[in-house]
Amino acid sequence: MKTAKKNGLAAAAVLGAVLMAGSVVAPAVANDASRGGKDAGGQQGSESTKGQGGQDETSKHVLLLSVDGLHQKDLDLYVKYHPTSALASLVNHGTSYTHAQTPVPSDSFPGMVGQLTGGNPGTTGVYYDDTFNRTLLPAGTTDCKNTAPGAEVAFTEAADKNQNALDAGQGLPGLPASILNMTGQPGTLLASAALPVDPASCKPVYPHQYLKVNTVFEVAKSAGLATAWSDKHPAYEILNGPSGKGVDDLFTPEINSMAPAPFSGDWTKDNAATQQYDGYKVQAVLNEIGGKDHSGTKAAAVPAIFGMNFQSVSTAQKLPTSDGLAGGYLQGGTVPGPLLSKALDFVNDSVGKFEAGLAASGHAKDTTVILSAKHGQSPMDSSTLTRVPDSAIIDGLNAAWKTARPGAADLVAFSTDDDIMQLWLSDHSQSAAQFAKDYLAAHPAAGNDINGVAKTVTASGLGKVYAGSEVAGYFGTQTSDARYPDILGIAQTGVVYTGGKSKIAEHGGASADDRDVPLVISGANDQHARTVTSAVETTQIAPTILKTLGLDPNKLQAVQIEGTKALPRR
Length: 570
What we know:
Layout: E1 3-4, H1 12-19, H2 37-42, E2 49-51, E3 61-67, H3 72-81, H4 86-92, E4 95-97, E5 100-101, H5 108-117, H6 121-124, E6 130-133, E7 151-154, E8 197-198, E9 203-204, H7 207-210, H8 216-222, E10 228-230, E11 249-251, H9 271-289, E12 305-310, H10 312-318, E13 321-322, E14 325-326, E15 329-330, E16 335-336, H11 338-361, E17 367-372, E18 386-388, H12 390-404, E19 412-417, E20 420-425, H13 430-442, E21 445-448, E22 454-457, E23 462-467, H14 469-475, E24 487-491, E25 495-497, H15 512-515, E26 516-517, E27 520-522, E28 530-532, E29 536-537, H16 541-548, H17 557-562
Parallel strand pairs: 1-19, 3-12, 3-17, 4-28, 5-29, 10-11, 18-25
Antiparallel strand pairs: 2-28, 4-27, 5-26, 6-7, 8-9, 13-14, 15-16, 17-27, 19-20, 20-24, 21-22, 23-24
Helix pairs in contact: 9-11, 10-11, 12-13
């Protein structure tokens, strides 16, 4: 059993202005029905468009930016108090979809895969970055005929040849300064012995082979277009798609590697370190805008699809303090605190660099910029926080199972718990799943609040529990699917499954704080701000990218399966 965990002072006048902004209204909380492509995106509700009417346009390039942790409320507030900022420019010269939501689980892996395939987990087969598969064999298996099926699928830093190195084990001299020389083919940096094994071929399964559907990169490649992307682990080679060849230039420095002095721990443990880390990816994208590869050393076509994800906002939301500044939000979760304000400024400055780079290279008029997020972060209001160690819950469940069935093995084979609970059970029967569901619903759990004061939550900290076939139904998959969890627990407001007191927020869940993210499309010829208020999902980014490039969205398999629509007309 393994439990997977995701892991300058602002001017007083600026902070004072931000503190006055308590009037931003949060989008409505989504219910369980608003979770899948067909519920929240594939089958559109009524469309409401405000502002100047617009037409869909085509571009030669699409620059996709994912600011992990960013909420729609954060963007609204930033633009309000920074009306001449780069982020405001995107909003003021583009279309804002103000009720956009991520898939569930609202984790980085399914979130990014969703944006670039058009599919939800039941379609893509990607339920998290660290999961369990009932038919694959454990990593390192060589005797495939005599090994029982069931394996962890860890497409995290654990798959790197060297997870402590920023280059994931490539062996570059002079790190971190030399990191831009990292390979653009990060599949070569994955340790085959750390990957699950296919029982049929007795060979390791790479991330791109695990993905069930194709990506926008593959569609673009088939049309003869160049592609690039920058992300946080080499395992993001999953974005190459099943062909393994979707992304020409994939830059993936390992974020969970050890950061250099004066930092301690990995790049996520200090927000200044995270900004330095994100800065490498920013430079990679700037190099690509300038007609080079990510390293800036080789001439290359400006990609038709390219971009990056930012981690700086996410870590500023999670860390209680960093660099002498308080993390998270003020005023009941409505106003970014000083650390988060600084991180938002960093992202804004980076977007400004991209805009300047596009103008300097002559590509401002043929590039569409899409801004969104893989996930939000919960809770925004730290007064609702309850940190709950999930190990005690799982130990209690296993003990109860073995008491009821003397001689039985532990019931929980694997778990992934952030502010969602996903359990894969050693007994895949509906009765075993129901046993787990009943136990979780009946037992309280001990935790601590924002101040570290002991606090107890009911029902294991869960507001809703799905078991067995209910989970398959939730995700819209078949009960024969070897990948979905036996238990899906939707956490109560503010509950984060973590030991200790090192974080004040997480993601992965189904709450509004987890899922309500911005989605802005700023086209080269957009002259006015437009707002679309109908509910959309970030999976709709994928068909929209292809449509913007003049390609057929129906070339995406997930679009065919889920009926995912391109975003409403701009």
